Amino acid sequence: MATEAGWPSWRLLALDVGAVRIGLAVSDPSGTVVTPLRVIRRRPQVQAVAQIVAAIAAEAAVGVVVGLPLSLSGAHSDQTRATEAFAATLAAQITVPLVTWDERYTTTEAERILRERGVRRDRWREQIDAVAAGVILQDYLDAHIPPVLPPPPEHD
To answer: Considering the domain boundaries, does residue 152 fall inside one?
Structure first.
């Protein structure tokens, strides 16, 4: 299906995977506007994965973008490896493509957005991960103009 601009019509779901919480955000069908959805608990992992699978279905997402927490130098850390392991577990449970995307500076950008929106600092915890997921997805989409889907999953 195509939009009036001739680009494909589809939605992507983005995840900001933290040690405690996972933020979710989704693009509009044109792949140009991003909306933070919600924050879910990461543990138990089975429940978190089930909630993400349900969000993929509810939002009719055709791909998932997972923020990859690289160090400022671009090196992998323990959190990077934990996120990659979570992404691999999720990828095995979904039928849509999943791609990781560099998420450096997204928390700083999410804090700036919350400040500009006038959100009280004591309310940030419940929103920042979803806003950060939105930043990750917007960065991904901005790097892929016109929008493109993540590559299909690899099969063994």
So the answer is: no
CA distance 136 to 66: 8
Backbone φ and ψ for 7, nearest 5 degrees, come out as -85, 160
CATH number for the domain harbouring residue 88: 3.30.420.140
Alpha-carbon torsion angle 118, 124, 127, 133, nearest 10: 100
Residue 88 lies inside a defined structural domain of this protein: yes
Q: State the total domains in the chain.
A: 1
Q: CA 100 to CA 109: how far, in whole Å? A: 19
Q: What string of pLDDT tens digits covers the 156 residues of the chain?
A: 444 444 456 899 999 999 999 999 999 988 889 999 999 999 999 999 999 999 999 999 999 999 999 987 878 889 999 999 999 999 999 999 999 999 988 877 777 877 887 877 777 777 889 989 999 999 999 888 765 666 666 655
Two tokens at 4?
């009036």
Q: Which residues contact 137 (CB under 8 A, 6 or more apart)?
A: 12, 13, 14, 25, 26, 27, 34, 65
**Structural domain of 94:** 11-143
Q: Name the residue type at position 70.
A: L
pTM tops 0.90, yes or no: no
Query: Residue 138: beta bridge partners?
Result: none
